């Protein structure tokens, strides 16, 4: 399989982060479901993977701090996938999802 370019990886990483955040709380269930359980979920697996984050960090596109926070974000989401909070209602109401949404917002701010 061909390795994606560092520019494309950064674009996909930033797109993944953009699909999550507290802004979703003002959206309807369909938008939350699509953004979190289709777009964000897929990106978390690939573009927030340790190898991808390390490539972005090595290229100087993300800082050590962003890399660490992105890794924590990925771990939090992977934990949520294994439990009972993998649904839109939980996104709106659980403290675990609140941490995920706020951490995504924090990372977005750091990327700007």
TrEMBL record:
Protein name (Swiss-Prot/TrEMBL): Uncharacterized protein
UniProt organism field: Acetivibrio mesophilus
